[in-house]
Amino acid sequence: MITASCFSPHEAILGWLVAGDVPLDQVLAKKVLISSEDVIKDIEHIPMKCLDESVSLARVRKYFRANAWKTVADLVERVMEESTWFCVVCNNELDTGESIGCDACLEWYHMKCAGVQNKPKKKVWICRSCYKTKNS
User: Fold this and answer.
1) Is the pTM of the predicted complex or chain greater than 0.70?
2) Going from the N-terminus, what domains does the chain have, and what CATH number goes with each?
3) What is the pLDDT of residues 116-130, one digit of tens each?
4) Burial class, 6, CB count within 10 angstroms (exposed 0-12 / middle 13-18 / buried 19+)
5) Residue in 118, 92, 114, 127 with CA at minimum distance from that of residue 12
């Protein structure tokens, strides 16, 4: 699995789904399409955040060959069957308190773990890590 960088949702989503040797810069530039051999097959390597309702996997469909997209759909269906969400900070299940998702890296946090006391009024929330990356 490729490590996702902040502020690149397409790259982050692709990083969850394809092997590390796939040249994402060429994929994002639409120079190559992802084949089914490039899709990660082990559901333990697919993060639960791919199921987040704010993550539209369909927006990266254009980067996959048809057979590869079917592989992704089957993989996501298997992940859905085993869905348990965990806070990226404390690794406890997210159903143990209010949670919030970063709109840049798409990671999920307990609000307490993220240092957020009240639900943000803005529709977009950025975690500290992504905020620091953006401002450095």
Assistant:
1) no
2) 9-81 (no CATH), 94-134 (3.30.40.10)
3) 999 888 888 999 988
4) buried
5) 127
Q: What is the DSSP string of 46-85?
A: S-GGGG-TT--GGGGGGGB-HHHHHHHHHHHHHHHHT---
The answer to whether 50 and 82 have CB atoms below 8 angstroms apart is: no
Residue 27: predicted pLDDT: 94
Distances (CA, A) of 46 to 17, 26, 118: 7, 22, 30
Q: Could you give the CA distance from residue 40 to residue 50 in angstroms, rounded to a whole number?
A: 13
Other CB atoms within 10 A of residue 101 CB: 21
Tally Cβ neighbours within 10 Å of residue 23. Answer: 10
Structure tokens at 52: 């987040």
Which spans in 1-136 are helix H?
Answer: 9-17, 24-28, 66-81, 128-134
How far apart (Å, rounded) are the C-alpha atoms in residues 132 and 6?
10
